[in-house]
Amino acid sequence: MLEVKNVNKSYPSGNLFKKRNIDVLQDISFRMRGQETLCIVGESGCGKTTLGKCLVGLEKIDSGVIKAGNDILNSSISGTKLSAAISRIQIIFQNPDMSLNPKKSIYQILAEPLILQKSPKQEFKKIIVDAIESVGMYEKHLSYYPHQLSGGQNQRIAIARSILMAPDILIADEVTSALDVSVQAHIVQLLMKVKKEMSMTLIFISHDLALVKRIADRVMVMKDGRIVELDHTSDIFLNPKHEYTRTLVDNMKKVSLISNFKQLEKPVLA
Which domains are present in the chain? Predict the structure, then answer.
């Protein structure tokens, strides 16, 4: 379904007198099966988001190959071949308010993928209504603008927009971190529902290990632009092999213990 082989990505840094490249992704290689949920974890700056952007073509890789099905997405292709490859992979970003055009109505935002796909205009309304209802919203919201909706509602719109392209692979980049805790669970449940109904492969980028433990088939741990461990979820949490993975898992356990302790601290009324 998805094969990433020896992918490297760097960004220029420094000033006029001293220039250098910062390696953001270093020799990234992994494969995914169809309908699998792969969660990518690691500290801020480890390359998680950059990898997601490279997978959908928002960032060009320096070297390596990204293959989705029979389509190859790398630095050497462009034009219609690039568009065909990218259409198979869609991404949902962390901040829904930043990823939706504030000057366009929800209907116009959801129509954009259909225009790119050159879908018949007479079918736009039905397709868009079906999409917005599939994420738990209503036809009346199509006339709204992003600023008139809550963060959770805008994230639902972002999900609806991504599935209009009928992708094989969906990347969710920290999609709950900008939302209220009360909304986060609903968005995750919606993503898993959409994934199942559309038989998609899901790449879930997150720092919430407790959530990752519940939804992932496999977990990829990244540090300093490299994959330090990639294994089945149970093996990652029960028998982590890399020292950095053990640190992440231990920290998750400490947070869980503190949370439980705080619950016990609540006064008991006689």
Answer: 2-258 (3.40.50.300)
